[in-house]
Specification:
The structure holds two protein chains of two kinds.
Chain A: E1 2-8, E2 11-20, H1 25-38, E3 43-54, H2 56-72, E4 75-79, H3 83-91, E5 99-101, H4 104-109
Chain B: E1 2-4, E2 23-33, H1 39-52, H2 57-78, E3 86-98, E4 101-112, H3 136-143, E5 146-152, E6 155-163
Antiparallel strand pairs in B: 1-5, 2-3, 3-4, 4-6, 5-6
Helix pairs in contact in B: 1-2, 2-3
Classes of the chains: A alpha/beta, B alpha+beta.
Chain lengths: 110, 176
């Protein structure tokens, strides 16, 4: 898995790629919490377009990020989910809990 | 402990005693270490096995997800996150005939020598509550037709089965 950060108009976009499973979810969790808790980014976007796979540990990290952002009064916004990632969000019944957009353009306009 | 979703067929009766009419062909048996880096390799193997059995993509993803979550549970809970312990993964093709229709399935058995599983944790948790963790077993139960746990001779065994929709027998045209 790889994580790259982009700054855009006071917001941050994390471009994630690869597989988010037990071996990589701690890294993603840390990246999310740094942006949300330490940098206090008001809007954090996660670009999941190039994420091939996510497991329950990856979902748990996203939930932790969401809870942290709610505590901070900030927003965590996801976009670019492929079928595999969408299925897992649906199985977790989280697709309506997270802010999810089709692509970057729609997410940035939100 | 057995979890059995509503099935169109009645094939396997248990981990040790498959239905007598059911045939099981070994597809692969691998031994891996309890290292999270092995997960992507197992996912690739299981995905290929489902392709060989002609599972549709969505069903293939369900099987891959279940095996990945089950292995994650073994690493995290049975081996407490310690690397270097053995997990055996066995994958078989199941075949039987049900009311004249041919039924094919995939069986994956994981075996580890870690801590015994805790039955109270096998129920999963409510999804109404927003909190991290506890989703893996839910994914497995949602995705597989059979989920069976057994502790035998100091080892945990988890058997996962997923069937393809039965293929109806080919009927001869009338008059022939």
């Amino acid at each position: 898995m790889q994580i790259a950060a982009r700054e855009l108009q006071g917001s941050t976009i994390l471009d994630l790629s690869g597989d988010i499973d037990l071996s990589h979810s701690p890294e993603m969790r840390k990246a999310l919490l740094v942006q949300i808790k330490e940098k206090r980014i008001p809007k954090l976007f996660l670009n999941l377009k190039n994420v091939r796979y996510i497991d329950s540990s990856g979902i748990a990290s996203l939930v932790e990020g969401l809870k942290a952002s709610r505590d901070q009064g900030s927003r965590l916004i996801l976009f670019g989910l492929n079928t595999t990632v969408r299925e897992v969000m649906q199985l977790s019944r989280l697709q309506k809990i997270f802010e999810i957009y089709e692509d970057e353009e729609q997410a940035l306009a939100s | 402990m057995v979890h059995d979703r509503n099935m169109p067929t009645n094939p396997d009766s248990g981990m040790a005693s498959r239905d007598r009419e059911s045939q099981a062909d070994l597809l692969l048996r691998v031994e891996l270490e309890s290292n999270p880096e092995a997960l992507c390799l197992v996912r690739a193997m299981v995905e290929r096995a489902t392709e060989v059995l002609q599972f549709p993509e969505s069903e293939s993803r369900a099987v891959v997800r279940s095996v990945d979550e089950a292995l994650t549970n073994v690493i995290r809970h049975a081996y407490k996150g310690r690397a270097g312990h053995t997990i055996e993964v066995t994958c078989r093709r199941l075949r039987h005939v049900d009311n004249g229709a041919s039924v094919v399935g995939i069986e994956i058995v994981l075996e580890d020598a870690g801590e015994p599983f805790e039955p109270e944790k096998l129920q999963g948790r409510s999804l109404d509550e927003l909190r991290p963790g506890g989703l893996g077993l839910h994914f497995i139960r949602q995705s597989m037709d059979k989920v069976e746990f057994r502790r035998e001779k100091g080892k945990n065994q988890l058997r996962l089965v997923k069937y393809l929709a039965p293929v109806a027998p080919v009927k001869s045209p009338q008059g022939e």
